[in-house]
Amino acid sequence: MKVLANDGISKAGENALKEAGIEILDNRVAQDHVINFINDNNVDVLLVRSVTKVRKELIDACPGLKIIGRGGIGMDNIDVEYAKSKGIKIINTPTASSKSVAELVFGHFISLARFLHESNRLMPLEGDTHFSAMKKSFSNAYELSGKTLGVIGFGSIGQEVIKIGISLGMKVTVLTRSHKTEVLTLNFFDGQSVNFEITSTNDMDAFLKNADFISINTPKTNEYIIDTPQFEKMKDGAYIVNTARGGVINEVTLIDFIESGKIAGAALDVFENEPSPELPLLMNPALSLSPHVGGNTVDAQEKIGIELAEQIIKLQKETIR
């Protein structure tokens, strides 16, 4: 079996595949040349992250593909159902990067609440001349403890966001389409653990009215989850972080509500126009920004590589039998 990890794979995942006698190609092939590379090299397994797109045309043109894998949760860059209809196995790693994404959410929350995103821009430019003025302007900061954390989405990432919020002493509300109850376990360094039973609400208005910090953790959507009507119902001075997908929040409207003072600040790790975010977003000082790096930690990539390798090895053994 031959594997093309076109968007990369961790060394641990690569080693696991090699130990199982599976050949791994870690070439980075441009989208326009992927089809020819797969066919010329008799590739059985195509592994991608978010860069390579696996659409119907590629699937039809590569009849030798047996497995398509996505290193991560979302599968919107793969025509999953069509691939399955062609007998191709689809694998992904739905939980491997959840902790990394959740930690980024709070990196942004803390950056916004303490003006770190803005002071890190200004200190190199004005720290020696306007130190006292900046100290004064950044003094209207907030603790997260005691505030209400609103989480949109109750999947693996949403659950990790909730756990961190609880550990910081935040109140938690969760918004889903229908009521859902989950028992979340917080594990501590000394072996102790505490369970929290969390029940979501589908009352958008009440959710928005009470949340001080809002984290969006949903799959890709066909329409905005957060647009003018939702912004209008939010608590004055709320903070928002989107690490889900571009297109779940109206970025133009977001800027309007930030400039009006309704929204205190927002963070975006994903954008409607990736990989070329709109300039007004990049230049707005009330935004904390990152280039779609939610799952890009050494830890997450190790887990992703190992999980993909284990699934491929298992499928190979099942095929042999």
Describe the structure.
The protein is α/β, with parallel strands linked by helices and 321 residues long. It is built from 13 helices and 13 strands. The protein has helices at 11-19, 34-40, 56-61, 80-85, 98-113, 116-126, 131-137, 156-167, 204-210, 228-233, 251-259, 279-283, 298-320; strands at residues 2-5, 23-25, 45-48, 67-70, 89-92, 148-152, 171-175, 181-187, 193-199, 213-216, 238-242, 263-268, 287-289. The strands form three sheets. A six-stranded parallel β-sheet has the order 7-6-10-11-12-13, sandwiched between helices. Strands 2-1-3-4-5 form a five-stranded parallel β-sheet. Strands 8-9 form a two-stranded antiparallel sheet. Helix 1 (11-19) runs parallel beside helix 13 and helix 5 (98-113) crosses helix 8 (156-167).
